TrEMBL record:
Modified residues (N6-(pyridoxal phosphate)lysine): K34
Protein EC: 5.1.1.1
Keywords: Isomerase, Pyridoxal phosphate
Species: Pseudohaliea rubra DSM 19751
InterPro entries registered for this protein in UniProt: Ala_racemase, Ala_racemase/Decarboxylase_C, Ala_racemase_C, Ala_racemase_N, Ala_racemase_pyridoxalP-BS, PLP-binding_barrel
Official protein name in the record: Alanine racemase
Record GO biological process: D-alanine biosynthetic process
Taxon lineage: Bacteria, Pseudomonadati, Pseudomonadota, Gammaproteobacteria, Cellvibrionales
Reactions catalysed according to its record: L-alanine = D-alanine
Amino acid sequence: MRPTRARIELARLRANAALAAEKAPDSRLMAVLKADGYGHGAVAVAQALAATADAFAVATLDEAVTLREAGIRQPVLLLEGPFEPSELEEIQARELTVTITGPEQLAWVEAARLRGPVACWLKLDTGMHRLGLDPARAREAWERLDASANADLQAACTHFARAEELDRPETGRQLERFLAATRDLPLALSAANSPAVLARPETHLDWIRPGYLLYGDTPLPREHPAGAGLAAVMQFESAVIAVREIPAGDAVGYGGSWVAERPSRIATIAAGYGDGYPRTTANGTPVLVKGRRAPLAGRVSMDMLTVDVTDLPPVQVGDPVRLWGDDLPVGEVARGSGTTGYELLAGMPARTPRVYT
Ligand SMILES: *Cc1c(COP(=O)(O)O)cnc(C)c1O
């Protein structure tokens, strides 16, 4: 059997969620499960967190329905709101919570013909400029939703654009705008994503909304102590399927992007971009072979990649390999392809088996 798999350690997911809850003892915890639980399997994640999380958040109605059909009873928030008015009927019937992300969604809720009120969160655009109403219209929106029999408005929320950049002023300004706009409204408040949960306690408010940190990597600069204690949930594992010696001057892989500077030993690993390891990863990015770091050598293929194991103790076919996980955070691997761990996790393809332990 091909040795490539994403082993998911659910006990660690619970421990990471408990750590987030400890950082924000006065807040409720909404666990963000969009993109199939950041590639870990949204249903498995929701089931594992059923006792820890007070609510869940997803991006689409399909994702929310999948959770309901798996028996998840907690509130489930649709972070991007309804995409069209026709979704509201099912949102209400499934007892999901919808985000009012702009004037259109506000009007859709008012005009809908529903069997009962739909739970709503009101999103305010405090500076990210992606979704949300103008904070100056928060009171008017609250009044309209309060007057509508279709809406049960429960909370106001906003989202930070640069919360992980701890020395910058934007997050503080966003928080100020949010608090000013909601000051007199009888609503629960929510702003904190993972970096804010870890390092900005003043943003915790009534509901924290961590995603990335639950999966066990820090979104902060790696040396920042607030990220300590998180444990990688996904172990992206494979194995060595070939080993060869090559002379100095020979190139490895498509396009000859890596050339041996000395006689070298090359190990071939049964994982490639078809399994979720980015093709754009730079030569030299670490791969763990039998627990030791070896540099990627040569372009990543669809089903395989190659590493330079010249400096490792003898490597054999069948030796275990970790592409990311313990001792090799996904965020560090992501830097080798100019992206973040978020993208690598969310992009894990269905071909890579998820094995739950
Ligand atoms: C994705 C998302 C989150 C979670 O962000 P993380 O950085 O993964 O913690 C929170 N709120 C909203 C609106 C989001 O889209």
